[in-house]
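In the current project phase, the collection of sequences with tokenised folds has grown. A sample record is quoted in full directly below:
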Amino acid sequence: MRIMDHPVLGPMTPRREVEFFFEGRKMKGMEGEPIAAALMAMGIRVLRRSKWYGQPRGIFCAIGLCTDCMVVVDRVPNVRSCATPLREGMDIRMQLTSDGMRTLR
């Protein structure tokens, strides 16, 4: 589900649909939209796990200030998904901790 006509921002401009991968699964999103928005539209809410207890984290501030939405994009860790535009073919992986590691302590 996407917001196409926002009550404050107005109508969203049409964008080209692109394919990307999340955890190896092919998905579709709108080119240029934040990665987090594309994942939310596909039903993905958990983007990483907390460092010490492995608790699920997703979008919190949605403006790039916190670290809750960090993912690994094309093998680069610590990418803020709420502030990074989606592009064709991205390989996005869940980041298990805020320090870029894929394993819990």
